[in-house]
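Sequence in, structure out.
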Amino acid sequence: MWLKVQRCLRMNGAETLSTLICQLMRNPVERYVPTASSLLETQGDTLDACTAYFPLISDINLAEFMSG
């Protein structure tokens, strides 16, 4: 279910929300690389309040992928 929600958010331009949804998946580790890379490719052109959501990222691995 979360994968479908994540895809819909990406299609609507909400890449940061898509990244937050990745944390709710049962096995999020396999989705970290595609999720972080899609967020990094946006170059700040997301339609959501991307910097406001960064404190909600609780997973260290996902934060490392997003910063690199």
